[in-house]
Amino acid sequence: MTYCAALRLDEGLVFAADTRTNAGIDNVATFRKLHHWCSAGDRVLVLLTAGNLSITQSVVSLLNEQIEASAATQAPSLMSVPSLYRAARLVGDAVREVRRVDGPALEAGHLGFSASCLLGGQIGTEPPSLFQIYPEGNFIEANEDTAFLQIGEHKYGKPILDRVARPSMGLGEAAKLLLLSFDSTLRSNLSVGMPIDLLIYARDSLDIRHERRIGQDDEYFRYLASAWSNALREAFGKIEEFET
Amino acid sequence: MTYCAALRLDEGLVFAADTRTNAGIDNVATFRKLHHWCSAGDRVLVLLTAGNLSITQSVVSLLNEQIEASAATQAPSLMSVPSLYRAARLVGDAVREVRRVDGPALEAGHLGFSASCLLGGQIGTEPPSLFQIYPEGNFIEANEDTAFLQIGEHKYGKPILDRVARPSMGLGEAAKLLLLSFDSTLRSNLSVGMPIDLLIYARDSLDIRHERRIGQDDEYFRYLASAWSNALREAFGKIEEFET
User: Which residue of chain B has the CA closest to A227?
Assistant: First the structure.
């Protein structure tokens, strides 16, 4: 499994993805699930992927092929489309193309077709935006009522997001929140694993300035996990017991 | 869906189950999923059920039929078996009997066969114990390394149990913890709903003295939910932000 989440805030976007991939529980590996494309001053696009790794890697390869081909063909690509909406359409089309190629064989092997993506970023003078693309290639956009979107193993880390996330959060506070959501997931589900890729996009910067891979030995993450555990236990202790 | 959880503690057992049942999202009803049998001084058995309501109700009906018939037939029933292990076997057998009767038609309708149970209690001089029975009728028993078991929509409420549950907790503290686990689940998943049935079993009491249905207007639950929200937000605020 995988856990990816992103926050859409007044000040920008924050993305995080784990890196664990497993084919059975005895074949565990580390793969990047956070991908980005940037043309400083023009656009930043960030893609988080969950699902069958062969499918999501093919989606990224198709998107990169389009970028390389577009100089010659003038066909649209992530680096040329005029809006995030059009970029989400391209990602959806790439998912559908992979399904056309690999879907029947996967289904014949009873593996199903699993691929979900989060796509966020900013193009030119558009406001930053965030989309979730489904395995069928259709998608939704986060709006002012939806401060966050998640894909993959999302349930363990949802309660803290439900309680705390709000569009007015600062970027540093939001990164803290996302990492706490990952901490809860990592503790409860072995199929989600470190390191975590974290990317913070500041509105209107049109550049990627804060990207970090957070491993087991990351000082801030260790502080965060231990401070949160202690704070939770302390908070729990302060609440009156149920009277028996 | 459903959420049921139980804690196995040095001082006894604590059980909780929600009561929401839905057939589609436009057909929502309240059904009891916490069932118990008690012969004061001899035994207490508590069964929590999740899955297809027609299946789990049939399981309970079969178990009750056995109890009624056993006076005449001397066949084993929940009220006569000498151990919780044997009681879990009876529940597993009842699940298999319902599968024999209803399974083929359910599977022909592509509905699958979903039924999970938690069975806990105490018989005579045995220590209290807690079992999880799977849809196939096999089961596991909680031991000293497993302070809790969950069935149904268990992921949202697991992080808090993972962090706080331990066998040495008092019963009132454990009831508080279970209710917090339910609070997280209720906030994140509409298919789990109030009221919550809560049952606290004190070791060696061989009687049910604390059973309570906790509804929307329950004063303690409202205090708990609001105190926990405030405590979490306060704890979140105290942790240093991620440096951007």
Answer: B239
